[in-house]
């Protein structure tokens, strides 16, 4: 299959189109603007809809409306913009609506800077909006995965009727790599018998709404939703294992940080230190089973993050704190070097976990 040189942001947009997305609503913000720019060129030629909303608040609510009508819809933004979308994402979760939301992270908090970051991990996995709900959070680490996981995101959203987030960063969004624009096999999808597309006199009215005033009914809707989340945790958690079979020290890293971590693992092996890497492709659901299994043989873990330490909490929970977990952190838009991670591996190998 022919390979095309593309930016990560462009690969996301083209993959969404291949997955049947014809409705995009968004607002420009660095470093994700190419997603919107690409859609603005392609969708009108395909009979689709591209609309630059007046704000991120407006764009997520446009996605809500399009999804309620039964079409595949998407928005993209970067860290501060996702914060503005949080109310609408919660509404979508409460309405049980599928959609794909792309976050190409930048440094923060606040407006911060435009350099890459992974400081939105908590936002994606813990508090993307108010109330009891989750979004599925997918984490690519190359342009090919930007394409493949975006297509998967639309299927997951439709199967489980929930928002799905692609959590990238400025490195992945802006870097260029060869990518096969392949259509991954579509999963079996449920009928959308809940959409508000008109009855044609053949069925009752469908209502899409997150307002449930009776507490007993609202509680039951949350119970039902969390039954679905349990199924997602059992069926959809994904993790890459790299040189972990005999590893004494296991690195945990995702996204761009995982690429750098692989080089550090190889450098550690060259020095006789048995290092390995666990890379979650799903940040929620977190691949707990992979980490729990590694805790049975590893001597220590190192969470490599472009943040002050967020995923480290999930690593500790998944391993039940059976082994020490150290942090190797860069933040504010700074990026690790392989030598920095190697130095941390050497330090931990000597029993220094600070």
Descriptive terms for the model:
354 residues, alpha/beta, Rossmann fold, 7-stranded mixed beta sheet, 5-stranded mixed beta sheet, 14 strands, 40% helix, 19% strand
What is the gist of this entry?
40% of the residues lie in helices and 19% in strands. The protein has helices at residues 8-18, 33-42, 56-68, 79-95, 121-125, 143-160, 170-174, 215-235, 255-270, 288-294, 311-318, 338-349; strands at residues 3-7, 23-26, 49-52, 73-77, 99-105, 136-138, 163-169, 176-180, 239-242, 249-252, 275-280, 282-284, 300-305, 325-329.
In terms of topology, how is this protein built?
Elements: E1 3-7, H1 8-18, E2 23-26, H2 33-42, E3 49-52, H3 56-68, E4 73-77, H4 79-95, E5 99-105, H5 121-125, E6 136-138, H6 143-160, E7 163-169, H7 170-174, E8 176-180, H8 215-235, E9 239-242, E10 249-252, H9 255-270, E11 275-280, E12 282-284, H10 288-294, E13 300-305, H11 311-318, E14 325-329, H12 338-349
Parallel strand pairs: 2-3, 2-4, 4-5, 5-7, 6-7, 10-11, 10-13, 13-14
Antiparallel strand pairs: 1-8, 6-12, 9-11
Question: Would you kindly provide a written description of the structure presented here, covering whatever features stand out?
Answer:
This protein is of the alpha/beta class and 354 residues long. The protein folds into 2 domains: 3-190 and 209-235, Rossmann fold (3-Layer(aba) Sandwich); 239-349, Rossmann fold, CATH 3.40.50.920. Helices cover 40% and strands 19% of the residues. The protein contains 12 helices and 14 strands. The protein has helices at residues 8-18, 33-42, 56-68, 79-95, 121-125, 143-160, 170-174, 215-235, 255-270, 288-294, 311-318, 338-349; strands at 3-7, 23-26, 49-52, 73-77, 99-105, 136-138, 163-169, 176-180, 239-242, 249-252, 275-280, 282-284, 300-305, 325-329. A 7-stranded mixed β-sheet has the order 3-2-4-5-7-6-12, with helices on both faces. Helix 4 links the parallel strand 4 and strand 5 (99-105). Helix 1 packs parallel to helix 6, helix 9 crosses helix 12 (338-349) and helix 10 crosses helix 11 (311-318). The model has no long low-confidence stretch (mean pLDDT 96).
């Amino acid at each position: 299959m022919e390979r095309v040189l593309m930016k990560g942001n462009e690969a996301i947009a083209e993959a969404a189109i291949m997955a049947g997305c014809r409705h995009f609503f968004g607002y420009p913000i660095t470093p994700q603007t190419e997603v919107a720019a690409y859609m603005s060129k392609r969708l009108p030629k395909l009979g689709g809809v591209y609309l630059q909303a007046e704000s991120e608040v407006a764009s997520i609510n446009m996605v809500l409306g399009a999804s309620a009508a039964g079409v595949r819809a998407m928005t993209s933004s970067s860290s501060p913009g996702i914060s503005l979308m949080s109310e609408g994402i919660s509404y979508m979760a409460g309405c049980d609506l599928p959609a794909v939301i792309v976050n190409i992270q930048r440094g923060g908090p606040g407006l911060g800077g435009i350099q890459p970051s992974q400081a939105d991990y908590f936002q994606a996995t813990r508090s993307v909006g108010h109330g009891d709900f989750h979004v599925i959070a997918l984490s690519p680490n190359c342009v090919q995965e930007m394409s493949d996981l975006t297509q998967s995101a639309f299927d997951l959203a439709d199967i489980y009727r929930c928002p799905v987030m692609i959590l990238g960063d400025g490195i992945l969004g802006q870097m260029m790599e060869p990518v096969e624009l392949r259509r991954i096999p579509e999963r079996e999808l449920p009928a959308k018998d809940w959409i508000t597309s008109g009855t044609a006199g053949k069925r009752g009215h469908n209502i899409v709404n997150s307002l449930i005033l009776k507490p007993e009914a609202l509680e039951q809707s949350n119970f039902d939703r969390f039954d679905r989340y349990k199924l997602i945790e059992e069926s959809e958690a994904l993790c890459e294992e790299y040189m972990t079979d005999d590893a004494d020290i296991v690195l945990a890293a995702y996204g761009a940080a995982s690429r750098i971590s692989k080089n550090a693992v190889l450098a550690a092996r060259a020095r006789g230190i048995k290092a390995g890497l666990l890379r979650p492709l799903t940040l929620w659901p977190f691949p707990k089973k992979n980490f729990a299994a590694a805790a049975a043989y590893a001597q220590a873990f190192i969470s490599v993050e472009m943040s002050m330490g967020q995923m480290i909490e999930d690593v500790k929970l998944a391993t039940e704190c059976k082994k020490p977990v150290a942090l190797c952190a860069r933040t504010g838009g700074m990026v690790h070097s392989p030598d920095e991670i190697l130095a941390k591996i050497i330090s931990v190998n000597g029993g220094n976990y600070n």
